[in-house]
Amino acid sequence: MTHAGVDIDSLTPAEAAEWYASCGIPVFPCRPRGKEPLVEGGFHAATTDEARIREWWRRWPEANIGVPTGAASGWLVVDIDPRNGGDETLGAWLSKYGRWPATCEATTGGGGRHILFRHVAGLRCGPLAPGVDLKTDGGYVVVAPSIHPSGGRYMWDGMDGADSLGRLGEPPGWLLRLAREKRPQTVSSAAPGRKIGAGRRNVELTSIAGVLRSRGAGEAELCELLRRINGTLCDPPLRPDEIERIAQSVSRYKPRAENERPDSQRVFDRLDEGRYRMQIPGIASELEIDLLRREDGNLVGELSARCFLPGNRGVDGLLSVGDFNVSSVRARSERAKLIASRANTKTEEVDWPGIIEDFCQRVLLAEREGNPALVLADVPLPEPDDEWQVHGFPLLKHHPTILFGDGGCAKSYLALWFLGVLAKQGVHTLYCDWELDEREHRRRLELLGLADRREILYLRCSNPLTVECERIRRIAREYGCQYIVLDSVLLACDGPAESAEVAGRYFRALRRIGTGSLSIAHIAKGEGGDQKPFGSAFWHNSARATFNIKRADSVGGENIAEVAIYQRKANLKAFRPPIAYSLRFEDERTVIRRGDIADIPELAGNLTVPQRMAALLRRGPMTTAELAERLEVNDSSIRVAMTRKPGIFMRLPDGRVGLVAPQGGSDAKQ
């Protein structure tokens, strides 16, 4: 498929997606005739990998094509919506500032336009003026030849069509000035209202959408209204895909019938393990229970009640939150009275005792039933690309990994660097810290040359992970974090690390958070302490991969650290060969590079004979005698290694020993 002269409109969605990828533009699938991402991670999952793209469009052949805006694609997009005054705004701009610079433009299929410029760092997604949005890091657009929900087709404009993507113009200075100034409001500023902060945005916008849906608003109307409210009242605004997800979810509810009570429609959902929610759209209210557990035979959890009707006596809509005995009839009655008084609703319109009773019965039934059994053959296979490779170190996308070692091995420094490498790929991450503080990690970020990477979030933790996990999960969900680091296990425990129960609770908390993770741990003292993390054997047994890190004695001064990482457990992948890194600490920067473990005698001594042979042979074939002399072993040890590892070593025609594969394979564990 050629890059130039392509007629995008004549291609199937799959062919078009591959064409974008071949041009270096990452893509991901969206719902056919819609904008909602179909893959986990949404626009964060966008890729240029052709195998992955073919797999996606084999599964969803009619899927629309999404492209992340910002650094991932190099696009800064001005999104013009004529239904909300975009044409008028554009006309005023053209009259005041003159024509746009020559660049790529598209029609959206719904009557709008996308004007593309080269990406400029430091800008934020969100409303720019009435009917005009700016899309950069944290946003995405749907592209040709996708189909708009209205049935219209997205199309690249102008004579050059999609070819103009290779000639994006620089955004004009006046546009950048507008983008960097305080955003104007898109609804009447005369209506006073509090800002909706992080942590409440999803809940409040969902409740607002519920009221609108109960009165008959459709998905497109909900999306547009929520977008405007989000840009005006949410600080910071939610990502565009989150707004679309809320609108799509709420539009599943049936509108309220004309003579129906406001509280009659109740939507019950299982949000997660031990977490349930009931929404009552007609009264802009919801109940949510979390942290469910059994105490003396009773089902107990933390119950939150929210209401966003005018006149309620809650704090930012929160009427009540506290432990609640779901099994107790008396507790239900007392909590209903409290919520009714705080909501300030009329008894004849809102039956809070009935709502609480209904919610509790559904929770009890759901807990008795548990998760349904699945036909294993119907379960989708794991994605082939289920890990990130960070300069040789594998980070599992959906499972827990432990990196353990003695103090001073640069574990935390390397973990932050790993997140920095992911950030450069557009992956949002979270560093959960029990040991240091934000200033020290900010200094390290600066020294690593990553100070501009806003994809890395930092969270100072003081309570055990079993307590912090709900906060971590909420933040990860709010900001789209796909990977977390927990530093360190010992301080994040809710009891002694030697306890199997403590390890079990730690990993259950990680499972609730729901992302891939790297937990930093220490080693046990004594012989064999470098084989498993400190504490119960269940730390090693419950992680899907564990790695031990060792540091060589200082070489060339205290400003250089040489470390090696050895894999000790691999449940999901083959064992990896040991990895070496060199860290050079300078006054104004820290440089981390991958090295060759064979060049560090102190660390190379921890390798098996096959591993040491592979390291030497990567530089070129050698005779058996040369290998034995370099490794200080008998010739017979070399012959045994060759016999046991025929997939790695081979005898060359001239009698020397060489490698079957240049990298020596990951099979050289034993």
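(the above was protein one; protein two follows)
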Amino acid sequence: MPALPSSKSPVTSAPILLVVDDLEANLEAMRALLGGDKHWQLRSANSGEAALRCLLAEDVSLVLLDVQMPGMDGYEVAELMRSSPKTRYTPIIFVSAIARTQELILRGYSSGAVDFILKPFDPPVLLLKVKNLLAYESNRRELQRIGAQLERQRAFSDSVLNNAAEGIMVVDEHGQIQYANPTMAEFTDSTVERLQKTAFCSLIAEPKSERDWQASSFYQHWQKRQVYRLYEAELQRKEGASPLPVALSCAPLPPPQRAMVIIARDISVERELRTRLEALIISDPLTGLLNRRGFYLAAESALERAKRSNNPFAVIYLDLDGFKRINDSLGHAVGDELLCQVGKQLKTELRAYDALARIGGDEFTILLDALNQESDAARIADKLLRLISIRHQLGNEAFSISASAGIVCYPQGGDTVEGLLRAADMAMYEAKQNRSGYHFHSPQMTQRAKERLKLEQSLRQAVEQQQFSLLYQPQFYLQSGALRGFEALLRWTQGNTANISPLQFIPLLEETHLINPLGEWIFAEGLSHLKKLREQLGSGFVLSLNVSPVQFAQPQLVENLTQLLHDRNIASSQLEVEVTESTLMSDMQTTQKHLSQLRELGVKVAVDDFGTGYSSLAYLRQFDVDSLKIDRLFIANMLSSRRDAAIISTIIDLAKHLELEVIAEGVETEEQRKWLLAHQCSTLQGWLVAPALPLEQALQVPRQLSWNQLPLDKG
């Protein structure tokens, strides 16, 4: 009976079992015995030639081969199978009615058989042998596939190492280089052969503390089985050549290899390989997040970076409230789905370089790297807790949950990963007991962070409810006493029960970008008041409006000012914008563009707090400004400090030569006024004349000041 064509075989992963016998009765018996098992597909052939055709057409996993057949017997079929690469390792069971003599058995095994069964056979025994051999063949093929894959990976790794842009070495426990790639040889002006067996530390030019192997950080971290990175180092090169600056990274190789791999400059390949190898042992199988081990590794890396760079980071320990109740009432499947959903929600709100882990049950840990201040951790924790507390819909079930979080900051809360996690865990339990949402590991930190967060929330409410107002401090020319104009100053006048000063709330407005909507209001309100001031005082004065760094960076700044001036029919020459030195220097291209547009519009530009920022005179040549405002700190000390007096005198002389106006801020005494007048300062502003005034009082400011009638009446 000819073998069935492979083209008509069903597409399946079940292995193929081929039975070869020249007697149809025997084939029928084999089909009855073997044909009903779903673990394999049965094929049959009634001659050696038909068997070979089937073997060439299909991927046969096991052959039951009759020994005695007319034409081509079983031995010849077996020998031909062993001569073909495709069937060389296919297992063969000889089935024979001839008595098993030693000669026949040896001939069968020499032909390639793995077993010899005598007819009549015991069906259960045959079935067991078929199953075992098919399992063996499946394992062999899987090993063959894995071997081929490993070989491809080895070839790939060799290609990467030999062609990588990074220098890569393997250094043994004694500090001797066992392997170096061509790039490393290039880095050190050497050869691969010369680098082998060279002491690794002899290649290090800087830092010198790493040149003793036993005392080096590389050896210490290798002993601890820790990854170590040295971001600033130099490698020795040939005599007369400058050392090569590099970033070095080392990682211990897994046991039993007592060695480490060291990468120069770029560690991306090493990181990728390490990520692949450790993915299974550092990930939580349910959520796909880091597990406890993975979080420890991430936290240890952050700790090492923080110790070198003094950059703070924070750890948040978060626990779901009432999770056991959900598990008990809705089942573990719903509980698991909830954990996955919470993990996804948390991940979407974190930065790419933050670390998120599920370390057990309903507990999550979060590593917030590179924080500016501890209150940032409170803000993020509050945001995450509010995110979790939304109503969750899982299938047909809908419910709400809450969470508690403990926060600890490095270095205040500890200098080890274990210590930081312990402190965060304790703070979490404190938060859970007090039902406070989140809690810092110390009362002092909790109070500071909450106060700042409370201030931010109050500011948001103040912006939304327009609780701010503008006051106007007059400026007068020193020589003539004529009114120059007013500086509009922002004050928080409603809802500010703590009497928080502008020095506290304005930086927070800028940091949170709340200054953007508020800045638009300041422009609109200030220009509306300018219109009223002009009706009372004429058009011979200017109004100065402060522009924050955030506002100044906005591309539509000048466009918005132009529209506001047009809508209120105000001449642009009556408007002056004040910016600080640091604002001007933050983005030179934007600064040049805005100053050019403001000049074209006709708006004046004043440099606020001159002398306290970059203090670079070069920008006065590059930037088109109209006036310089001397900071009040210099004015306060100029009569008692020769240095401050010299600085002010120099600024006045410089401005005079550059044809810039000089405005002295914070003038409070008659002696200060006389000194400024004697040194030809053009304009003053301060409490000597008047504080910042509400609009109603500013409307009463005289156009011409009498110096012997100061201060002005503020009533």
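Reviewer note on protein two: Confidence is low (pLDDT under 50) at residues 1-12, 266-272.
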